[in-house]
Design goal:
single chain, 16 helices, about 475 residues, 7-stranded mixed beta sheet, about 15% strand, Rossmann fold, CoA-Trfase_III_dom_1_sf, 3-stranded mixed beta sheet, alpha/beta
Length: about 475
């Protein structure tokens, strides 16, 4: 049944239904579903939004944990039963805001957002400007004919003379900026990119055939992904969540950042938990060769850069497969691998804006706002957990039929799936509790650990796997602190 355009109607789905739907689409063993427990699941709103974010949080984290449990069951000789997995709803929702709910030495977090971004009124509507990275902020000011020290008020005055689509086009067509027009559902549904997005949020394809390659045999009590090597080249927030999730289940994750690009310290500290960190410049021949050597000997390559950007340096899945025939390449993008916007950059807040979500959320809230953002970066977080799920599904496939695999997850694909779950009527979705600060969160959801920056109190992982250790060993440290080699 279609509720709009080619959107499937999943409005009756529970979190368990979502898990079953996506699990089945990945062709994973159906008997594994009986090992999953979802405490606290409810049909009622679980966080203040018209969207069913609680369903999405609990199911996406559950999918990643159940995939890890499935892999663990294949690593004993003979294969064992699938360990039971539990993901409580409230804890999952809290983890969807983990980058906002930690502290170091009890000091408040700095604001990670820039000074000129957000929603701006245009001559015929609104646009949202993303300014977290200096290149985006400075590029936007240059496009508007403003100096580098211009204020938000200066930006608003200039934007007011533009039509929304004209400014979006000028900012995004060359792939350099992150500016999108505010659209309604009907406007988004009429756009060709809308129909280019698949109804399944995880796309898995075999890149090349090969002999089966199983993960090494481990003890029953070990971590699910012990010994799995993951190379991550990513930026905020979704792709880093994928690497962080794999690390929580024991993978050796090497997070590669560039010395030429700005970092986001506030976000990085949460998202780097569980990872070792190295810095490599792919413009430097020696450092590029070091990266290639790591790729030759890893299991998984995660990348979250704008589609095509790493491929232009020789890091496409096809090129990597030539040096590693068993590689699993996992891509996180804004709009997916198909359609006129497939090469565009984008972020959670921008996909919410251009797809009609912000308009619909505002209409449900009923306060006369032009747009209303969701209470968390739900597309980012769900995208990360779903990408990790796709990676583990590919690891399972590799153990059964062999070959190399490509995984694609997009923020727009997550948006489409979340929208397909339907919305709570009127303002009813906004009557639930939110988790804005640490004092709002049950203390048992936190852990306190020593880091290179001080004592960090942060949200622990919400999934548990019976008989297996889940959580992070590596703690945040300055970028580039580790050696570029596998453990």
């Amino acid at each position: 049944m279609s509720i709009s355009n080619n959107l499937i109607n999943r409005s009756s789905f529970s979190a368990a239904d979502i898990v079953k739907d996506i699990w089945t689409s990945l062709h994973l063993p159906p008997h594994a579903l009986s090992s999953l427990s979802l405490p606290g699941h409810q049909a009622a709103p679980a966080t203040p939004s018209s969207f069913k974010i609680g369903h999405l949080a609990q199911s996406s984290i559950a999918l990643s944990a159940l995939s890890a449990s499935l892999l663990h069951s294949t690593r004993s000789s003979p294969p064992s039963s699938i360990p039971r997995v539990s993901v409580p709803l409230e804890h999952a929702l809290v983890e969807f805001k983990s980058e906002r709910l930690y502290d170091i030495d009890k000091q408040p977090l700095e604001d990670p957002w820039g000074s000129i971004g957000g929603l701006h009124k245009t001559a015929d509507g609104y646009v949202r400007i993303h300014d977290n990275f200096p290149c985006h902020a400075l590029g936007t000011l240059e496009l508007l004919g403003l100096p580098p020290d211009a204020s938000r008020q200066d930006v608003a005055a200039k934007v007011a003379h533009w039509k929304s689509i004209d400014l979006e086009t000028a900012g995004t067509e060359k792939g350099k900026l992150a500016i999108y027009a505010l659209r309604s559902y009907s406007e988004w549904d009429a756009h060709p990119q809308s129909t280019a997005i698949e109804n399944s949020p995880i796309l898995v394809r075999q890149l090349a055939q090969g002999l089966p390659k199983s993960l090494s045999t481990v003890k029953k009590s070990s971590r699910c992904l012990q010994g799995v090597r993951v190379l991550e080249m990513s930026r905020v927030i979704a792709a880093p969540v994928a690497g962080k999730t794999l690390a929580a289940h024991g993978a050796d994750v090497l997070w590669v950042t560039s010395p030429n690009l700005p970092n986001q310290p506030v976000l990085d500290r949460d998202l780097s938990r569980g990872k070792r960190t190295i810095r490599l410049d792919i413009h430097n021949p020696d450092e590029k060769e070091r990266l290639l050597e790591l790729l030759r000997t890893c299991d998984v390559f995660i990348q979250g850069y704008r589609p095509g950007s790493l491929a232009s340096y020789g890091f496409s899945p096809e090129e990597i497969q030539k040096i590693n025939p068993n590689i699993i390449c996992a891509n996180l993008s804004a709009f997916g691998p198909s359609g006129p916007w497939s090469q565009r950059r984008g972020f959670d807040s921008l996909v919410q804006t251009c797809s009609g979500m912000n308009v619909s959320e505002a209409e449900h809230f009923g306060a006369g706002e032009a747009a209303r953002a969701m209470p968390c970066q739900a597309l980012d977080h769900a995208g990360g957990y779903l990408l990790a799920t796709g990676v583990m599904a590919a690891l399972y496939n590799r153990s059964q039929v062999g070959g190399s695999w490509v995984i694609d997850v997009s923020l727009a694909g997550v948006m489409k799936y979340l929208r397909s779950l339907g919305q709570y009527p009127g303002k009813t979705g906004f009557e639930s509790q939110d988790f804005v600060k640490q004092a709002d969160v049950p203390t048992e959801y936190f852990e306190t650990r020593d880091t290179a920056f001080g004592k960090m109190t942060a949200v622990r992982h919400s999934a548990s796997v019976e008989g297996c250790e889940v959580g992070w060993e590596e703690m945040p440290k300055p970028l580039g602190s580790d050696e570029a080699k596998w453990l």
